[in-house]
Amino acid sequence: MRPSGRATDEMRELSFETGYAKHAEGSCMVKFGDTHVLCTASLESRTPPWLRDTGKGWVTAEYGMLPRATHTRGDREAARGKQSGRTQEIQRLIGRALRAAVDLTRIGERQIRIDCDVIQADGGTRTAAISGGFVALHECLRTMRDAGLIETLPVKDTVAAVSCGLYKNTPVLDLDYDEDSTADADANFVLTGTGGVVEIQGTAEGEPFAEEQFLRLMRLARIGCDAITAEQKRVLGLR
């Protein structure tokens, strides 16, 4: 029995709320159960130096956790003077995932910066950030189209992410903190709406896990990402 009482292939309650931040070109409050992440997309009329005069744009991401997003207060990284390795790794993952969704040659020499701020954490913050970040990015691209900056939406596919793991040697979908903190293995899957694999991160916390167990986690990830994609499309009004 999972601590939450969910079935092994059951997601936490999932929601996306668009238009959450008044001033951002795109925004979304995403909730995976008790994990809540505010994702905003900001349009900048410049690209990184290495893309100047190429006609190509860029999508990048930043990630952070508020001091009381977790059970005990954590210091702001700005107060410590540097980002942790974990933070840098997560925001690079978010950026890679979201760039997979967009034809960067069609947004002009502009940069879209996705800020993912964890308001409340209960496991799966990076996967929630990717899933909500896509919704915020899509809203930003719509804003650009409506302003005449681009003719059509340069979206190649949807992108969603979910965690899976071995809890008490049983494959389960969408780990919350109680499961993630004691899992025998955990993995993060980033998949497109058409089933393509963008990235997989997987780690055994103790004993190595078998290929068959990994394949079972992959099957659960597809179930979860299908559910996330369906909700993303519903909120964005996509078919």
Question: Can you tell me about this structure?
Answer:
Belongs to the RNase PH family. It catalyses: tRNA(n+1) + phosphate = tRNA(n) + a ribonucleoside 5'-diphosphate. The chain is an alpha+beta fold. The protein has a single domain (about 15-235), classed as Ribosomal Protein S5, domain 2 (2-Layer Sandwich), CATH 3.30.230.70. It is built from 5 helices and 9 strands, in the order ββββααβαββαββα. The protein has helices at about 75-80, 85-100, 125-145, 175-180, 210-235, and strands at about 15-20, 25-30, 35-45, 60-65, 110-120, 160-165, 170-175, 185-190, 195-205. Strands 1-2-3-5-4 form a 5-stranded mixed β-sheet. Strand 1 (about 15-20) and strand 2 (about 25-30) form a beta hairpin. The protein is globular, with a radius of gyration of 18 Å. About 40% of the residues are buried. The model has no long low-confidence stretch (mean pLDDT about 95).
